[in-house]
Structure formats: C-alpha cells, structure tokens
Design brief:
The chain has 159 residues and is mainly beta. The chain contains 2 helices and 12 strands, in the order E-H-E-E-E-E-E-E-E-E-E-E-E-H. It has helices at 17-27, 151-158; strands at residues 2-5, 37-42, 46-53, 63-65, 69-77, 79-85, 89-91, 102-106, 109-115, 118-122, 128-132, 140-148. The strands form 3 sheets. A 6-stranded antiparallel beta sheet has the order 1-10-5-12-3-2, covered by helices on one side. The longest helix has 11 residues, at 17-27. It is globular.
C-alpha cells in the first residue's frame, strides 16, 4: 500500500505502464470535475469510477482483494477511514473472476484516513477495507481507479 498526497503522485511514475496512464490522467485535469460513473483512461486497462457512498463502520465492512489490479482511491468530497490487513484474506464467498474481486475477513490491520488531496494505492493481492466512517463525516464522493497489472507484473507475481 502507498499512502501519499496527490501532489506527490508523479513521484510514482515508472512503476507500471498502466499506473503511469492513471497518474498522467490525474495530473492533466481537475478530477473533481469528472462525471459520476465510469470513465475509461486506457481501454479496460485503467478506468476510474466516481461515486457517492455512505461510509460504514469497520465491523460491518468486509476486506476486499484484487489479484490482477492495483486500486487507487482518493476522496473528492469528505473523508473516510481505511484499513489494510497484514494477514491473509479468508474468503466469505467465491471470487468474482470478472471483477477480479475476493471479499472476506482478515487478521491484524493498520488504519489510516483518506481525505481530499490524499490517495491510497492498494497493491494487487493486498486485503483492504475502504469507505469506513470517519467521525463527523456523512456522504462521501470518491474516485476509484482500477488499474490492470502490466503483463510483466502479472508474470512476476505468478513466480
């Protein structure tokens, strides 16, 4: 997991071609003006979904894991808490292969706060919860970038 400010996003160029496309997309525009719903950045390899959610408490949320995608999240309005597990995910239902999504429970986690101007980049295979209720915060408008692993990254993760 990487947690930083959007101003520092260019520091992560060169990690992945598909991540580079997202970084260049974010730096070239005011992402607060993105339309609700899905916007393709690089075909199906990188997309952003802008949505409004009602944060929930951690005990009501399941961890999620994507094995073939990075997930970059930033809050456009409001703030939220997130957790990243330091342990393995125990699935509570079968993996949704089409969405590359497994949900379940996981052990010990670390927590942080996401807000406007900050981002969290969840790595492939890393269990995390996001959209968790922060004190005093109601509805939350966020941008969630789904970034397919580059082909060479997928081969490295299989070895």
């Amino acid at each position: 997991m990487i947690y930083d400010t959007l101003n520092n996003l260019p520091n992560y160029l060169g990690m992945s071609d598909n991540l580079d496309a997202v970084i260049e997309f974010v730096m070239a525009r005011d992402i607060n003006n993105l339309p609700a719903g899905k916007t393709r950045i690089s075909g199906d390899k990188a997309v952003v979904t802008v949505c409004t959610v009602t944060p929930q408490t951690s005990d009501k949320a399941l961890f999620q894991r994507r094995d073939n995608h990075l997930t970059l999240e930033t809050d456009l309005e409001g703030s939220e808490l997130f957790e990243v597990s330091l342990g393995e995910l125990t699935p509570t239902k079968p993996t949704d292969e089409a969405a590359d999504l497994t949900v379940g429970t996981a052990g010990t986690s670390i927590a942080g706060m996401l807000c406007e101007g900050r981002f969290a980049l969840y790595l492939a295979g890393e269990p995390y919860k996001s959209g968790l209720k922060a004190q005093g915060c109601g509805k939350l408008k966020k941008a969630v970038f789904s970034i397919e692993l580059d082909e060479d990254e997928e081969e490295a993760s299989e070895e």
